[in-house]
Structures are given as structure tokens and as C-alpha cells.
Amino acid sequence: MCPPASRCLGLCSSSITARSARRGSTRCIDHGVRSRGISHFAKQNQFPVNWTAAETMLLTMECYQPTQWDIYWRLKPCEFVMHRLEGDKLFGTSAITKAWLRAIATHPAAYLQHRAAFMWNFLARPNLTIWTADVYDTDKKVFEGRTAFNAMMAIHDALMPTPLFRAGTWLLGCIAVTCLAWRRSDSPAGVFAIGVCGSGRSLCADVFCRRRGV
Asked: Which of 10, 39, 204, 212 is the most buried (most CB within 10 A)?
């Protein structure tokens, strides 16, 4: 039996609201991370709150890493940033977005430094590819007793230092394939190769321009 239309509409409405909330939170995280990056390179607080001298030192000097987006959310000693934003009910509001836009307008060079640092880390340095920490206890590892998982992690750890696990390697490969396929752009195979590799190049450009800096 089909559920009543009102129930379907209610479920759809709830789903849309949940997706909108997630997008809003994601945008807030993006803007917060970038404000942190600008704070680091400009050596000035760009968040819409006042910090103590010790907190400002952490924010502008020690907490910034172009590796993880949630350093100031869950990792000591930098989690004070998110605790304050949530405590002041700023997280998820336009105040964070406005602060981020104001920071870009005031310190465009610092913003570009942040994006360049993140992009270099994304292309040329090791990146987190498998989450192994227990969400409820970050000192523990997931599936520690699973033989298959441990075997996979052994392979992962062996390949991590190699170019195979560098996004830059695959970007260069995409560029090379595009160049070789261009002469066959009138064939289905050439169009396919250019389309797939073009998508990869576009993704990298998108990461630099607007995706959240980790």
C-alpha cells in the first residue's frame, strides 16, 4: 500500500530540510577553515569573535595545517575555536560567511597563500585516504582484529609513500592522456579519454578555487 500523500510530502520536506542544513553546515565549515587559513597567513584573527592572547597565538601560528579541515574542531589544543563558535551560536550563521568574505577582501594575498598551501598538499603530499580512528574513541583503531582489513591496511601503508598515492601523479597522467587523445578527438575513444581526463582536471581546479581547504 502506498503511504498517504501527506506522509510522503512530510518525508520529502524533512529530507530537503536535512540536506539544506547539511549544505549550510558544510558552507560554514568551508568558510571557517578558510578564515583560519587567512588568520594564519595574515597573522590576524579573522573570526567574528575576540580571543585571548594565548588563543590568538594558537590560531595564527600553531593550529594551522593545510592537511585536515577539522583540526580546530576536534584536536587539542585547537578545538577551542569550534567550541567558541558553537557556544556563541555563530556556527551555521551568516556571520561566519560575512567574516570570510571580509577577510578575503582585506587580505587577498593571505587567502591565495592558504589556497596554494592546501593545493600543494593535495597534489604532492600524503593525504588521508582511509579513516581508521574510532569516531567514539579516537585513541582506538577500527577493525583492529579483522585480518582482511589489516592486510588491506598493510598494502595501503606500503603504497602511501609512492607516487601512486599522489593526486598530482594522476593529474599529470590526465594531462598526458588528453594531449595524446586530442589527435583522435573525432573518435569515440578520443572523446571518452578527453572527457574523463577533462573531468579530473576540472575537479583539481575546483579544489583550488572553492572546495574547503583541509
From this structure: 39
**Cell 595524446, residue located:** 180
**pLDDT tens for each residue of 65-123:** 888 777 877 778 888 988 898 899 988 888 888 998 999 999 999 999 998 998 999 99
Closest CA to 42 of 121, 109, 102, 118: 109
Query: CA dihedral in degrees (29, 33, 38, 44; nearest 10)?
Result: 90
pTM for this entry? 0.70
Contact 39, 46 (CB under 8 A): yes
Task: Point out which residues pair with 133 in neighbouring strands.
Answer: 141
Are residues 127 and 159 in contact, defined by beta-carbon separation less than 8 angstroms? no
Q: How many CB atoms lie within 10 A of CB 137?
A: 8
* Listed residue (51, 14, 12, 20) closest to 35, CA to CA: 51
* CB contact at 8 A, 88 and 32: no
Can you read off the three cell numbers belonging to residue 207? 579544489
- Give CA separation, 164 vs 44, 72, 123, 128, 183, in Å: 38, 30, 11, 14, 27
The grid coordinates of residue 84 equal 567558541
Give the Cβ contact number of residue 213 at 10 Å. 25
In angstroms, the CA 49 to CA 88 distance is 9
